[in-house]
Amino acid sequence: MAYDHHDKAGNQGDVVKHVALIAALDTIVAAQPGRKFSYADVFAGHPWHHLLTGNEWKSGIGKLHRNSGLNGNPHIGLWSKWYLDGRPDLLYGMYPGSSVIAWDVCRYRNIPVRLSLWDISPDVIRDLMVVFGDGKHSIHGRPAVADEQDLSEADFILIDPPGLQSRNQPAYPAWDDLVRLADSVSDQAGFLIWLPVNANTSGGKGNVRECQHASDCRENSVGRNWHVTKVRWSIGGRTIGCQLVYRLPADAVSALRIAVDHVTHCVGWCVSHFPDSNGLRL
Ligand SMILES: C[S@@+](CC[C@H](N)C(=O)[O-])C[C@H]1O[C@@H](n2cnc3c(N)ncnc32)[C@H](O)[C@@H]1O
Question: Which of 8, 86, 110, 176 sits 20 to 30 Å CA-CA off 220?
Fold first, then answer.
């Protein structure tokens, strides 16, 4: 079955990714007042999702709704005010996708923004066209290709694949494909990659270990002088957490880490950063 983010919207992975996106992007755009910004999202997903019974949002935003601690961090305060507050119950409401969140951050800072969005799902492209199809943005109904113009001219790229290639999911992108997309941006631009951390199923029940692939991607990223933040939200199951891989200006790295530390503290998940503040790698 084709991947559909509607079922997953607002889950643990979205919490980590969207808080990180707001913190990093806001720090970058706030430092460039008045300049037109170019945002690229190579696995864009739908612009909006309905929050329905039985979907995964209950384990993510459902645990944070009405948590007064969220306002202890300015970026999480914005995320909460824009998307979680104002409804007595999140059920039957809407939660945004990353394209709308990026748009909101730029407009909050009064920055004109051009979005370049890619997705292979016809349903996603239809919805993106409804929202962003006014001719001011680029919407591509195909996979992004390394070094294409909309990528090499971007100021920021979000790389948020449905998963990584495996025996069960041969059509998903491989780690090397994501590296090529990240390498498409200029040295001045930033990128943020989201990756699942799956369990090493051979570890059995109880407090399972992460799979080797997750630690390999992290090691490879740190070896490239990229930064990694790993969040673990579950001791067992299939997807036990996620990793963010990023190359960003130093103040955006710091804002991202502070925001992810804060939101994970509010919800009780574990977080680690690589290299850590003492420069330790893995
Ligand atoms: C995790 S979802 C994106 C979620 C979105 N970035 C957000 O945070 O709201 C991944 C998306 O990638 C799309 N997709 C899958 N394979 C793709 C490919 N090779 N190129 C572009 N998009 C792809 C799926 O249709 C899906 O909408």
Answer: 8
d(CA 117, ligand 1 centre) in Å: 10
Distance 43 CA to ligand 1 centre (A): 4
Q: For residue range 20-74, what is the model confidence (pLDDT) as tens digits?
A: 999 999 999 999 988 999 999 999 999 999 999 999 999 999 999 999 999 999 9
Which residue is closest in CA terms to ligand 1's atom 18? 143
Query: Domains along the chain?
Result: 5-271 (3.40.50.150)
Q: Is the CB of 193 under 6 A from ligand 1?
A: no
Atom of ligand 1 nearest to the CA of 118: 21
Residue 3 Cα, ligand 1 centroid: separation in angstroms? 8
**Distance from C-alpha of 151 to C-alpha of 184, rounded to nearest angstrom:** 6
CA of 101 to the centre of ligand 1 (A): 15
DSSP string, the chain: ----GGGTTTSHHHHHHHHHHHHHHHHHHHTSTT--EEEEETT---SEEE--TTSGGGGTHHHHTT-GGGGGSHHHHHHIIIIITT-S-STTSEEE-HHHHHHHHHHHTT--EEEEEE-S-HHHHHHHHHHHTTTTSEEESS---TT-HHHHT-SEEEE--SS---SS-TTSPPHHHHHHHHTTS-TTSEEEEEEEEEB-GGG-SSSPPBPHHHHHHHHHHHHTT-EEEEEE--SSSSEEEEEEEEE--HHHHHHHHHHHHHHHHHHT-EEEEES-TT----
pTM (predicted TM-score)? 0.97
